[in-house]
Amino acid sequence: MTTAASLAYAEDFLSEDDHLVAARRRSDDVGVIPVGPGGGAALSFLASVVQAKSVAEIGTGTGVSGLWLLRGMQPDGVLTSVDLEAEHQRLARETFTEAGYAPQRFRLIAGAGLDVMPRLTDAGYDVVFLDGDKVEYGEYLDQAMRLVRPGGIIVFDNALWHDRVADPAQRDPETSAIRDVVQRVRNDERLRSVLLPLGDGLLAAQLLA
Ligand SMILES: C[S@@+](CC[C@H](N)C(=O)[O-])C[C@H]1O[C@@H](n2cnc3c(N)ncnc32)[C@H](O)[C@@H]1O
């Protein structure tokens, strides 16, 4: 079995530059928990593999995941990111701008994921990344299935949720909602999926063409 030391080694496989370190500091300042370096690297890799020009994200935070995604996207790609908290998005804007991204590369929408997602374009996204309210993960999956283009990828953060998802005795609303989504994704024949044990768990699924 993989040891904690090996998991930590994989998590830190790619190091973060000053812009990501600054974005993490902003997250700390406002009490946001961003993806770890391993999860961030996986997001960047997935965006690159599908040559993403259009990515939707629910849960901007202060832009750690967004910066990793932008770095994997095509040079003219646009990140659309939604967050309830205008202050988090103000800090994310700082993150993206300081990292050298022009304003036309990112579209920040302040609002609740479930209010905004129905207004986004059907099959308009190469990657849809979900990292907002864990209790809403089931509804995010319904929306993401509509938003992602065939061949595109849906990704959920916190798929292992602090080791609670794997423990059937844990039945709090967040854990149950995430466990439900993991099961739905695994059983959906329209999706090819993988559960990556990076950070707090990254569930990725490709919509088959
Ligand atoms: C875990 S943080 C996101 C971290 C970010 N994805 C990263 O890795 O850098 C979750 C974010 O989701 C936002 N959020 C919580 N509930 C939400 C909802 N219902 N709709 C949109 N955003 C929400 C919070 O304000 C917070 O900024």
Structure description:
This protein has eight helices and seven strands; from the N terminus they run αααβαβαβαβαβαββ. By secondary structure, the protein is of the alpha/beta class. The chain has a single domain, classed as Rossmann fold. Strands 3-2-1-4-5-7-6 form a seven-stranded mixed sheet, sandwiched between helices. The site of S-adenosylmethionine has 21 residues, from helix 4 and strand 2.
Task: Summarize this structure briefly.
Helices cover 41% and strands 21% of the residues.
List the main descriptive attributes of the protein structure presented here:
Rossmann fold, 7 strands, alpha/beta, 209 residues, binds S-adenosylmethionine, seven-stranded mixed beta sheet, 21% strand
Overall form: globular
Count helical runs.
Answer: 8
Terminal residue distance: 35 Å
CATH topology: Rossmann fold
- Identify every distinct bound molecule in the structure, by name, code or SMILES: S-adenosylmethionine
SSE order, one letter for each helix or strand: HHHEHEHEHEHEHEE
Q: What is the CATH level 1 assignment?
A: Alpha Beta
Q: Assembly type of the shown chains?
A: single chain
Please mark out the parts with pLDDT under 50 across 5 or more consecutive residues, or reply none: none
Name the helicity range: 40-55%
Count of the domains: 1
Describe the SSE topology.
Layout lengths: L3 H8 L6 H13 L6 H13 L4 E5 L5 H9 L5 E6 L2 H13 L7 E5 L2 H4 L8 E6 L6 H11 E10 L15 H15 L3 E6 L5 E6 L2
Parallel strand pairs: 1-2, 1-4, 2-3, 4-5
Antiparallel strand pairs: 5-7, 6-7
Helix pairs in contact: 2-5, 3-4
Bound molecules: S-adenosylmethionine.
S-adenosylmethionine binds next to helix 4 and strand 2.
